[in-house]
Amino acid sequence: QVQLVESGGGLVQPGGSLRLSCAASGFTSDDYHIGWFRQAPGKEREGVSCLSTWDGSTWYAESVKGRFTISRDNTKNTVYLQMSSLKPEDTAVYYCYTRSSWGQGAQVTVSS
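The structure assignment produced for this chain is given below.
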């Protein structure tokens, strides 16, 4: 059973940075896509970034390009989302997703 555990959310001022972590377990394949989604109050869940463990290719939503970076620590089976130059509109619950499974979500609030 796939398990995804996110951590690293919190409150940050505009222009600040946060790093989210997603620890994945319950599967042995080393060839999969893993991504981050977010859902702001009153809005639909949207894709933020995705990474392929096969070739390391990445994808970013236009709204976060140049500010967010997705990466992976193979030894820990953990995926990170480094978020910089955060804006109030980045406020949302961020979810990790892979192999039809979702994490529990991490709240990110950007406010002064």
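Interim note for the steering committee: The chain has a mean pLDDT of 94. The first strand starts at residue 3 and ends at 7.
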